[in-house]
Amino acid sequence: MDDKPVALVTGANKGIGLQIAKDLAAHGFTVLVGSRNLKRGEAAAKTVGVNARALELDVTNQASITAAAERIRSELGRLDVLVNNAGISHAGKPGRPLQEMVKAGRASVASLDEVRAVFETNVFGVIAVTQAMLPFLRTSPAGRIVNVSSSSGSLTLNSEPTNPHRAMFGVGYSPSKTALNAVTLAFALELESTRIKVNAACPGFTATDLNNFAGTRTVEQGAQQAVRLALLGPDGPTGTLSDDNGPVPW
Ligand code: NAP
Predict the structure, then answer these.
(1) Which CATH number fits domain 6-247: 3.20.20.100, 3.90.1150.10, 3.30.70.1560, 3.40.50.720?
(2) Which parts of the chain register pLDDT below 50?
(3) If you measure from the C-alpha of residue 105 to the centroid of ligand 1, how many angstroms do you get, rounded to a whole number?
(4) I want to staple 172 with a disulfide (CB 3.0 to 4.6 A). Which of 16, 38, 105, 216 is the partner?
């Protein structure tokens, strides 16, 4: 087993995940750049540097998850940080403008197939990947799980009439993040008596493919909160949702 801590970031071939991978490599981790397309993962890993390697991983495919865990076991023998970052905002045509995404996600008209696809990646994928990686994290001296979620899933904030973003709360993406917040809490509660800390990070509205680059924050800013939670010390919290401004209500 290597002395260097190992981190896996899912969906790290671009966007916020790629930046999280770069930041964790800069903090001394060997970083596994998760990518459902190996070639894209390899190209991204090169931009992270010598401490990164691509790991083929489709979070919606159990065989892919099992194979990734097996590669970690045989090639590295450890995993200290898992960042569940992979996510989709919709399952329509790539490049869909943000307003169209919001319209297609409205409760009265959303396609159930699309809602299912979004939950498959953003929620069930996180449960499956976390279950597969937990045996490694349990033996780590400082196991950390960070789920890249969103304050758009906060029921408290969306119940607030003065919140200007609540018009975007449909039945797809935002509730998938509400469910991810619940999943975060479920793992945190079960693992409370272990060294593992489980937290959710909101990157803020960041310019990436996810929102057709309508976001106003850079990926460097978007990665910050997830990286902070990945590096928490032994006295750090577990079972929280936060952004750069501090705790976010569930
Ligand atoms: P992005 O640039 O579109 O990146 C999403 C990543 O997830 C890509 O690498 C994508 O891979 C990957 N992915 C999608 N489905 C996957 C699957 N089945 N298996 C493995 N990887 C998969 O978007 P981003 O903004 O960086 O999003 C990263 C995370 O931040 C997401 O969880 C998102 O919900 C969250 N977030 C983003 C914002 C924002 O404003 N951007 C705000 C709040 C939360 P491909 O290249 O193969 O598609």
Answers:
(1) 3.40.50.720
(2) none
(3) 17
(4) 105
